[in-house]
Amino acid sequence: MEDQFEKIPPQDATAEQTNRLFNLLADRRRRYVLQRLQTADQPISLEELVADISAWEDTPPPETALTDKVDEVTVSLQHCHLPKLADAGLIEYDRAAENVAYTDHPQVEALVDRFPELFPGEDE
Fold this sequence. Notes:
Order of helices and strands: HHEHHEEH
Number of helices: 5
Largest sheet: 3 strands, antiparallel
Helix content: 40-55%
């Protein structure tokens, strides 16, 4: 399990902490998960997150067609991306309830503000 990121102002982060964060955010799906959760005012279901990512990636939503791509999005979130983000303390992921929530994190918020083009939004 990765050490959790400390919730410190970005200017106080060490080079090692910043590098770990950049490494974690190198994957576009993880960046989308964080951006999507930041805009939610409450935890969202895994199903809703899969639908949002599928729509963002131009994949038919699960309720209209259960495609291989939707299955791939679900599996990648459940077994890779959400656990990594949760282990780092950037999100809360309740595997049993299949709910996901963002935990306020100043370094992530600074990156979203500074580099919005790296974090896909609802208008994409």
